[in-house]
Write a structure and sequence with these properties.
Number of helices: 2
Number of strands: 4
Largest sheet: 4 strands, mixed
Radius of gyration: 15 Å
Strand content: 25-35%
Distance between the termini: 21 Å
Shape: globular
Order of helices and strands: HHEEEE
Structural class: alpha+beta
Helix content: 10-25%
Length: 108
Amino acid sequence: MTTALRAAPHIREVRRGPELDAALEKVGAFLADEGLTDVLAVQVLHSHFEVALDEALLEVTDEEARVQVTEVVPADQVSDEQAATWRFMLDGSPVVMGWCSSGHGGFH
């Protein structure tokens, strides 16, 4: 389930510079043209530690305390309805790589 995380570079190895800036401009222009800037955003694909194939990253929010954390949980504890973060594979197909706790309806 979390094979999308396996190829994410460590945060210290993330490529930055003019190529990334140019790509962000293109993605931003596309999102604006499609009217999706209020729904989609971009995050640098990265990892801080390994996530096993039977694990998933789950975003957990405590609205009252105004705290939001990402926890590693067993993959069988998340569902497609909770999908919140995707990455795009080499062929352009989206793959879920992060989920959101159902504390706010399963989706933001």
